[in-house]
Amino acid sequence: MRKIALAAGIVVLIATLHACKKDKEQPAGTVSYNSTALTVQVPDFVKTYVGDMKQPADNALTVEGVALGRKLFYEKMLSDNSTISCGSCHKQENAFDDPRPFSQGTHGTFGDRNAMAIVNLGWNSAFFWDGRRATMEQQAHDPVTNPIEMANTWPEVVKRLQSSTVYPDLFYKAFGTRTVDSNLVVKAIAQFERTLVSYNSPFDRYYYKGDSNALTAQEKNGLLIFKSKAMCNNCHLMNTQFTDNQFRNNGLDANPADPGRMKFTADAGDRGKFKVPTLRNIAQSAPYMHDSRFSTLEQVVDFYSGNIKQSSPNIDEHMPDFGSGLNLTTQEKADLVAFLKSLSDQEFLTNPAFSEPK
Fold first, then answer.
1. Cα–Cα distance, 94 to 281 (Å, whole number)
2. How many CB atoms lie within 10 A of CB 294?
3. Structural domains of the chain, ranges and CATH numbers in brackets
4. Cβ-count burial of 45 within 10 angstroms (0-12 exposed, 13-18 middle, 19+ buried)?
C-alpha cells in the first residue's frame, strides 16, 4: 500500500509539473492575447487634406505594439557594442533628427548624409534621402546592420532580446508570441514611429484653426512670401505636410558630388535629386540639406535667394529661372525665416509619450 501511495504521489507530482510547464509555455500560441487597437489622433484638417494615415494590413497599430516599439527605439542592445540606439541619432528635441552634421556609428565612423527628421512619416511612401525603402518597416531594418551605424547582425539582436527578462513578455503582449524575430522588431519600431505626428504649431492654430493672434505680423508676412515670391509651397506643399514627398534637384551644385537618387535607381535622370523634406519643426532640425552644408535657416534662405546653380543636371522645374535665385530683400528674408520658425510644435518636441521610457 505504501508503494502504491508513493507511486501515486509521483504521478501526481509529474502531472503537476507538466501542467505548470504547459501553463508557462501556453502563451506561445495556444492562448489568445488581447492587444488593444490604437488610432493616432490627428486634427480633422489633416484628414481633409491628406486623408487617414496609411497602415499596412499586417502591422496595424496597437497600444502594446507602440509601447514595445518605443522601448526598442531607445534600446542600445540593437547596436553591436550596446552604445547607441535609434534615439541616439533621432532626438526628440531636434524633431527626431540629429543636430550633428553626420551621425556617428558605434566605431566612431560618420555617415555621409544628414539624418532625416521623423515627423508625420505615416503619410510617406519612400524613405531616406534617395527613397531606397518603400515602407517604414524596411526603413527601420537598415541601421541595425549598416557597418557605419549600429554595425550589428540581426541574429545577435534577436539573441539578446530573447535572453532579456522583459522583452519576450512585451513581444507576447504586442504580437502574441514570445519568440523574437527581426520582422517583429521592425514592425514594433515602425508602429511607434507612426505615432510621431506634429500638427500643433502656431501656424496650424492660425491657418487651420482660425486663431488670428497665433502668428505675429512678421510671421504672417513671411507666410505670404512663402506662398508667393519665394515659391516655397511649390515643393513644400501647404497640404498640412509641408512636403510633396518627391525627389528634386534644387540646384545646390553645378556638378553634384553625391549622385542622390541615382545611387538607388541607376537612372542618370535622377542625378542630384533628393527627397523633399518636411518643413515642420524645421527650426529644430538643423543642419540643413542632405550634406548639412547650411547650419542656419538664414543660410538656407540666402541660398534660394541668390545662389542656385542653374546649370546643375536635372535641376527641378520649380527652381527660379530668373538669375540665380529669388532675389529676396533683407526684410523679406527675415520675414520668411520668422514664418518657418512658426512651424515649430512644442507639444511634439516635449511630448512625454515620445520620450525614452523609464
1. 8
2. 17
3. 44-197 (1.10.760.10), 202-348 (1.10.760.10)
4. middle
Predicted confidence at residue 267, as pLDDT, reads: 98
Residue type, 128: F
Q: At what angle do helices 136-145 and 154-163 cross, to 10 degrees?
A: 100
How much is the pTM? Answer: 0.90
Which three-class secondary structure state does DSSP give residue 198? Answer: coil
What is the distance between the alpha carbons of residues 187 and 122, in angstroms, rounded to a whole number? 13
By the 8 A CB rule, do 305 and 325 touch? yes
Buried b (16+ CB within 10 A) or exposed e, 167-206: bbebbbbbbbebebbbebbbbbbbbbbbbbbbbbbbbbbb
**Residue 245 DSSP SS3:** coil
| Per-residue confidence (pLDDT) for residue 32, from 0 to 100 | 52
Distance CA(124)–CA(79), nearest Å, equals 26
Q: Are 9 and 30 in contact (CB under 8 A)?
A: no
Question: What confidence score (pLDDT) does residue 20 get?
Answer: 40
Q: Which residues of the chain have pLDDT under 70?
A: 1-32, 322
Q: What pLDDT is attached to residue 321? A: 72
- pLDDT for 350 equals 98
Residue bearing cell 493616432: 40
What's the full length of the chain, in residues? 358
Q: In Å, what is the CA distance from 236 to each residue of 76, 100, 205, 281, 338?
A: 34, 24, 19, 13, 16
pLDDT of residue 177: 96
Distance separating alpha carbons of residues 62 and 69, to the nearest angstrom: 10
